[in-house]
Amino acid sequence: MATTTTTIQAKASLANPTYLTVTSFRSSAIIDLVEYNNAKLQEYIDRAQLMVDDWLGGNIGYSSYRDEHIRGMYDYPKNGIAIQLPRRPIDRITKIVLTFCASTTLTWDTATKIANWRINNDIGYIEYFGLTLSDYVLNICLRDPMASNIIPMAEVTYYAGYRSIPDNITKAMVILTEQLIRVSEGSDTEISSVSIGNYRETNRRSKGIKSVGVIGGTDQVERLLRPYRQPSQTMFVGGPYG
What we know:
Helix content: 10-25%
């Protein structure tokens, strides 16, 4: 069982899927790949996927997770608890454990019990209402950016991710892999000026290559990937339900 660490401790099972195969890349790429064998292309594809996964916040393929030490948010008006999971979209949840202090926990571990939670599958956000929190010893956190005084901790076991990799992810992988190849062979240039009389031209590095170290792509790559970025990579403020 592989372990993934973000801002929380998470354990995931099931193999992480690849976003792009060598065969698909050869059929989609617009650059000449005659001189590249499959093994070399696979190296570029692997590098591109590492960069994409890092920017997205982890592999978005379908897998099971057990995330621990998730900070919950107490909803005063509705007397409930809200939890932003680090993975999305949610397929199903099998267990939720809330810890209010060392000696006080609540557990939901059956489909009937979990059905009482309100779940936004697309963004990985869950809520539970109707708790009588005066029955529990509550922890105080003075550094909570959500401005909530009470921070229960949660452990959630669930399935999340895409069973089929979205087409836009594959498109972004093609563009990014091509860019890695261009950078490696020094062909990431564009014409900056042309003079017709006694023909002249000036070249400069393409503006499209913004930062290979970060996401390695053009604005187009980022636009293709952004809808699939995981909650752990963004600042989540307020609940989606209001």
